[in-house]
Design a protein that fits this description.
The chain is an alpha+beta fold. Helices cover about 20% and strands about 20% of the residues. It has 2 helices and 5 strands, in the order βαβββαβ. It has a 5-stranded mixed beta sheet with strand order 2-1-3-4-5, with helices on one face. Helix 1 links the parallel strand 1 and strand 2. The longest helix is centred in the N-terminal third of the chain and has 15 residues. It starts with 12 loop residues before the first strand and ends in a 26-residue tail after the last strand.
């Protein structure tokens, strides 16, 4: 099994659903305005298939958990950048609700194993410490 990667030259990537009827394109534009100074890459995608949860996006980096986020709005762009930086500095990609901006406490729709390495080898996320019951994922 591959060793977990906990730091990387690749910045966090936020993929934003451009087809979300609740403002996906506006969210994408708001994030792009903040991405350069935050050191986060923002990319638009056609559909994340979570239409019932408003604007959706994913957050990912090699070797860390990837997250599906929902209920997003353009006015949350700055808080999403704060969350992306906390994600980047976390060992496994897990940022507990108490460590996120208040506006992002209930945005998690799901998580997925880490991305593949360039060689195609699976990069498993580092095992996170067990959270207290009050800190479990939403």
């Amino acid at each position: 099994m591959a060793e977990p990667i906990t730091s990387c030259d690749t910045p966090p990537v936020i993929h934003v659903c451009l087809t979300c009827r609740d403002g996906g394109e506006a969210l994408h534009e708001a994030l792009l305005q903040q991405a350069t100074t935050a050191g986060v890459r923002v990319e638009g995608v056609e559909c994340l298939a979570a239409c019932q949860r408003g604007c959706t996006a994913t957050l990912s980096m090699p070797g860390k958990w990837s997250w599906l986020l929902g209920g997003l709005r353009p006015e949350l762009a700055e808080d999403l950048m704060v969350y992306a930086k906390a994600y980047e500095h976390s060992r496994s990609g897990t940022v507990m609700p108490s460590k996120r901006p208040e506006s992002l406490r209930d945005i998690i729709l799901g998580r997925f194993p880490g991305q593949l390495s360039p060689s195609g080898e699976s990069l498993q996320p580092a095992a996170p410490a067990q959270p207290a019951a009050s800190e479990r994922l939403s």
